Amino acid sequence: MAANIAPASRPAGRPVDRPVDRPVDRRGILIELGGTALVVFALTVSLVGFHIKDISGGITLDLRFVDVASAVAIALVVRGWTILMRHGYHRVVAISAAAVAALLVVSLLFGGAGVQPWLPFKAELLQWLLAVLSAGFAIGAGLRISRDGRSGVAGHDGAALDEQDALMDRVGAHVQRNSLWIGGVLFAAAACFPFMPGVNLQYLDIGVLVLTYIMLGWGLNIVVGLAGLLDLGYVAFYAVGAYSFALFASPDSPLLQDLGLTEGISFWLCLPFAGLMAALAGVALGFPVLRLRGDYLAIVTLGFGEMIRVTLLNFYSLTKGPDGISNIPPPSLLGYSTQSKMDEETLQNTTEFHTAMGWDFNQADTTILLYFVILAMALTTNFFTVRVRKLPVGRAWEALREDEVACRSLGINPTNTKLTAFGFGAMFGGFAGSFFATRQTFVSPESFTFIESAVILAIVVLGGFGSQIGVVVAAFLLIGLPEIFREVQEYRMLFFGGSMVLIMLWRPAGLLAHREPTIRMHGRKGRGGRAEADRAT
Amino acid sequence: MYHVAYFLDQLINGVTLGAIYGLVAIGYTMVYGIIGMINFAHGEIFMIGTFVSLIVFLLLGLAGGVWLPLAILIVLLAAMLFTAIYGWTLERVAYRRLRASPRLAALITAIGMSIFLQNYVQLLQGARNKPLPPQITGGVEVVNTTNRAGEAYAVSLSFLQILIIVLTIVLMVVFTLLITRTALGRAQRACEQDRGMAALLGINVDRTISLTFVIGASLAAVAGLIFMLRYGATDFFVGFLTGLKAFTAAVLGGIGSLPGAMLGGLLIGLIEVFFAGYFNLEYKDVATFTILVLVLIFRPTGLLGKPDIEKV
Hints:
Oligomer: heterodimer
Distance between the termini of chain A: 33 Å
Mean pLDDT of chain A: 76
Low-confidence stretches of chain A: 1-19, 524-537
Strand order of the largest sheet of chain B: 1-4
Radius of gyration of chain B: 20 Å
CATH class of the largest domain in chain A: Mainly Alpha
Strand content of chain B: 5-15%
Number of strands of chain A: 4
């Protein structure tokens, strides 16, 4: 493999255009339906059909065959709709799916406990999901009917899929071309967000969280999106940043106690230091492994992430192991503290910000400050990325992503170039880590598991490699939405994993993927993206 | 004498652990060989194998006393069957459409599937640890000595460990014969070399790849059964670290090489157990990953792998 990430190509397995008036193969349909039923039954009979229940002194089995039966029934109906759609019976699908969706919604909204036993699943959320799925089928079929009515010719499924794809490509291209505008609007919205009516502390907290992930996504985007290095252990640098910050900022840290200090060092002093430490860690870890090919590099970085976590967990004398380091102070502003409660001694030495300004203390103010700190940090990351793409080193990163062999023959040292990308990415991870530490006021190895790395990587990849706005969109989808729907907490990671798969199946190159080279040899014609080709036809 | 006994004890433990890693590693190496992707969700297939084994054991227990060897055979076959269906579905639903896509897309999908399956099992079966009482007890005493404190220290080869080693060897032999002697194995190797050419010569590539996943998943299910018998408990998260170490084993042995996966699994099992036994229990995972890094730096093709020539 010459390039770690090959340019976006279309999946081969797409259905070919086929005429709708082909004779219906009844036997084939029966086999298809039977196969679906059999597979779903075999999948669910073991893990869904039997529930291992804890009882006193051991475990026993609970039977849940109703759930298996409803899973099979649902699979049959959905498969049936797909087959009907394929054979052009859009009207049947539209009516039946709309009926099912309406039935589900009505019984969920007005049925109460009385109809619950009649619905397929115990969890209300899954019922809603089914309703949405049926509604989706109904809308899809309805759209097809209206389009066929307009053009007078029955369409093909393959064409519809291609159309969707081309649409998203166009959206991606538009977003990229107008990124200055969109970025400006987004920035204005983000800056006004804390002062908008109806924004309470909960929403502000979600905003801070989403911005943290946007910053992490932009930081990782340097490594994955620009340099094309797949890093599955980004959380390691996040952890290094958080811990190097915590060790110097918290009065409880074993390191400060060893040094004989009783007070933590200020946020603004620790922040660059934490970034530096993370960058050093990035260079140190990257040096031996950056010669490796794409997916090997991924696994090795994953291993590094786990190694750092295990070390943090067991190096008790420095990190306090699983107990973690607590009491990390929030950032100060212009030398004034934003803390609300402090012991007498500290109070005498410091002035609180709200006292200095003559305000009443308000918990939201601290959060608003945190919000603007992370907004500024995230924008710095973005600014760095946007500008560095125009520098020789940024150009070299992108060139390396496209073709490593060509780069080497042009005299670019691949290892050093990759190392700078790794180091810069790690540095921003470290900054985000220190922000995380100061926001949580507590760090422990629990927060730096592999799943974090996967989440950050998912944000970058789902947004579309290298697309800065894509990262924002993906962070909203993956972090913001599940946070807003906290009630479905149990199902959060299930949907997270599921949507990762679905988005990748739909758009293998990411949601807003539209990779235009940063520079061209011969103006716009040099290497036209798909969008250009689409416009030309 | 005590040192020899202790060493022997660790050796036996290491080999049984290595059997688990080796069986899971085969799934990684076969999939990598044929479609060039890291099937990150394979550890979760192993985890499903442990759950299916546990459920079938409990079912047999509820059904009344079944002769133990027969019970184990039933559990083995059931676990292989039901886990293999998960492996097949995984490929059909998540990976098939991405075969021509960038490698990264397939890896991300695999990570997504891994997260999905973990939470699927957690939601269905609960997050708590599920214990299985020991099924096979007793063993043969190999060495009997006293330790440094003067207490009796006996090293025994339990019947369970004998079963594990015999089962693994039998499976490996059957599997090797399957790959080297049968039409399916030939098709599998042909697809590994050149999928397009194999398709031109009339091999059903889709079916061959599906079968690769089925075989990998059923071997992982056997590993799951062994894990249940040996360690007596499972939860939804066991697949993550086991999968990672099995992948390390596959890389150590040379990814794409089947004997390499078995050898790598054995070595990783031994390294882990000996490191924990002689140096430090907490850092045994760090030791495994250090091995992975060292192998990749100094011998990226692994112990038995073929060198990968970069073509422009």
